[in-house]
Amino acid sequence: MVIDAADPSSHGSDPASNSAGAPPTAPPPKRRLGRRFRILWATFGFTSLGDGFIYGAVPLLAVVVDPHPVAVSTVVAANSLPWLLLGVHAGAIADRFERARVMALSNLFRAFVLAGMTLVVAMHTIDLPLLILLVLSEASGRAVYYAASQAALPELIEQRDFTRANGILFGTEAATENLAGPVFGTIIFSIGQALPFLSDGIAMTISGFSLLGFRTKRRVSEPAAPKTRMSEGLRHLLGNRDLRVLVSLIASLAGLQGLVTGVIVLVATKDWHVSTSFYGAFVATQAVGNMAGGFLADKVARSFGTVQTVLGAALLSALGYFAMSIATSWLWAGVAFTGVGFAVGCGGVVAVSLRQRLTPDELMGRVTSAWRGLVWGAGPLGALAAGGLAVAGGLRLPLYLAAGLQLLAACVLARPLVRAIAAVERRGEGEAREAGQSAAPA
Asked: Which of 101, 148, 173, 439 has a CA between 20 and 30 Å from the CA of residue 285?
């Protein structure tokens, strides 16, 4: 997602790892991912840092506006709901237009929304309906941005580097959006409630203008497909048996994770006595695990195997949620949250890399958005359910259910997942042999 590894403008099937006649040697050093990937990485990191400022601030603002569990979980759900509502359209936009330009305009739109959000928060005129509307609008622009950025990645690197590149991006996102950003965002929220939104708006403006001159396409795009074909990504995703099994597991886990995120701010502040200014640091414990899991995903998958990595991630997440559900202090809950983050990092990177290997380039944006629509769309549904469950059975009930149901989902889908991943890896090995034979001298 034979070629000169230093040229990131081309990619193709993996060549055979050892051509005939080559003496056995130590594994070759890692290839550079190229200048254009570094540009994508830099702008992605800056965008994620800006988003991190409001990652912790939005739930805290929701508690200030209306502390009822249903109200808080609704705001949290609104932050992911656009993936369910706009996923297919975001992917079609990413496939139809130059992806770097789509990323730039999406971030500039988000800067405009964040400017309005800063104004109403600073003037103390924000209420629950307006907060939900602004969060939905900003998240809609984010959905388009991420659809374009993930679809652009396979245009910049070779397929054999997908897992490493995805791990770098995921680890960067964890370090910025989920670690540094929330810590500083919640601190400045305690100083002034509008400051996190102002900071994110500035970051979106800078990153948007920086991306205007960047291009990802290696070739001139084909004429735009008619709107009736926007659903091709979803048809490919659900029509491919291997992809269908993979997305079923990841979507189920995302929905159960939503049960936790929908009420975590209330559990943390009420049961674990996490202060408002410290809430970002608590959320950052998961980000530490995300960062480690993302950066180490390629190494873990190579050491233990793809199947073991994906299923192990599901089992470790279930164990982490159970530990959180019985924790009596923020310290033990934070340790468990770190384990959950590591599992999500490893499993998510490997799953995304498998999806990219199974997706044609011309459908990359639409399949990416269909995937995220199902996976990220499951999250807000879980968050919405969490509010009602918390009212009916207590704040910790969603955590207990997330642990049990996640374990059940892993057990039910284990056998078909093993078959699906084995088929993907056999296909990749066959393509590698063919590429190696075609590159060999006659």
From this structure: 148
